[in-house]
Amino acid sequence: MQITAVAVFIKDGKVLLEKRRKNEDNYAGFWALPGGHKRKSESIKQTLKREMSEELNLHIKKAKYIGMFRDIDPTSKDIFHHHAFLCEEWRNHITYTREEERIKWWDLKKFKKIPNHRKVDEKILKQLKLI
């Protein structure tokens, strides 16, 4: 079982997603909420902060825990427990850091039409009543 922290960033009716590289060992080629794996020595909130710093060059100032969402990755077939956070305040500008293939703000009204998006992210956004 894999444990991750994922971040939901909302701005002007859009959600930030990252395009995962096709050679990734999990969720290869999918559009996904930014996030990453938990290390044994850290809390899930510490994971969120570390991953957002590494992936997007952001310092998370305020994040609200949404819940844990279980999923089976279609690439690796591993079970994932994604701990989702709504990021309400952050410092720095979101920056592409080569951790992902691409980052993009997507219109929430068109989320379900995004090609190759993760179904677990759809569940997270539904929980927040954003889609």
Key terms for this structure?
131 residues, alpha+beta, Nucleoside Triphosphate Pyrophosphohydrolase, four-stranded mixed β-sheet, four-stranded antiparallel β-sheet, 2 helices, globular
What this model shows, in words?
It is a single chain. The chain has 131 residues and is α+β, with helices and mostly antiparallel strands. It has a single domain, classed as Nucleoside Triphosphate Pyrophosphohydrolase (Alpha-Beta Complex). It is 17% helix and 40% strand. It is built from two helices and eight strands, in the order βββββαβββα. The strands form two sheets. Strands 5-1-7-6 form a four-stranded mixed sheet, sandwiched between helices. The longest helix is centred in the middle third of the chain and has 13 residues. The chain starts with a strand and ends with a helix. The mean pLDDT is 94.
List the helices and strands and how they pair.
Layout: E1 2-8, E2 10-11, E3 14-19, E4 31-32, E5 35-37, H1 44-56, E6 59-72, E7 79-91, E8 102-107, H2 119-127
Parallel strand pairs: 1-7
Antiparallel strand pairs: 1-5, 2-3, 3-4, 3-8, 6-7
